[in-house]
Task: structure prediction
Amino acid sequence: MTAKRIAILTSGGDCPGLNAVLRGTVRAANLLRWEVIGIQEGFEGLLDGGKHIRLDLTNTAGIMHLGGTILGATNKGRFISKRSGGKKATIHPDILDNASRTLSGLDVAALVVVGGDGSLATALQMHRAGFPLVGIPKTIDNDLAATELTFGFDSAVGCVADALGRLHTTAASHRRIMVLEVMGRHAGWIALHGGLSGGGDIILIPEIPFDYARITEAIQKRETEGATSHMIVVAEGAAPIDGRPTFQSMGGGDYRLGGIGDRVAREVGRRVGREARSCALGHLQRGGHPTPLDRILGTRFGVKAVELIEQGRLGTMVSYCCGQIGHVPIADAVHHMRKISSADQMVLTARSVGISFGD
Result:
């Protein structure tokens, strides 16, 4: 007979708030007399007998404020079900059988998968193959359509706002144009919220192709109004109206999105005739302590996952809507991006305070 035992894993890139999810899950499970097994190193920890630890009130105490994940995570390995460009890849049946044997050996009643779109796509394949599981959405990009908010996003926005504050002082001292490149492959939520909260002057996002001529005009207009420095925030997936996103060669034929900050700085500096410097925040946005909002959201997501398992609502994903924590079928959650509309209230607010989107 299957014990009241939950397994949980954190997959994909790390982000602030993951440990709050683990703590919340363990505490909620404890009150309902469920044991919790932590699968280490993401989905890879399910293979070849498993790599796991028991999670309890003792070893999850004092972890809520820590960044990263005490279980470890990976976005590589044999479970990858989403390739570059959004292409799907089917998980080999032998891999699924291997994982199933591991969970059976651990006498697990349900698995909690904490991850982004790619990890949840893997979870969907596993669910369709008969795995009892619940998903928890995790992405600093905040780009999953089935939930209005994901933990890690607020922490990333805070990192961008802090960086802009620091860059503003050096930009003002040297009368420079500063370009800050932030994460956001397909959606510009980090750039939009970070730019607005950090005092950005120009925000470039994937959803609104930009024109260098418009950026130049915005800078020249600011200078006629007395501005001597300018702050440009650009999401890594942003692209000009007549171009494509910028990729960097990683060697061996592999390419990674990034480099648009340098590209914008060079072109804008040339057109304006001013010194322009660029800075890419990169993984700084993923690191550090989670904000109080992300700690609370992560806790609520963990608690809800246990509630769904207790109720037998498997094959679902925890979601956030209008301040309430609910759930949706995993099938409705994956492969649906939450993107910014040009009519979005945040975009209109930014335009109302003089921010240009280069369009």
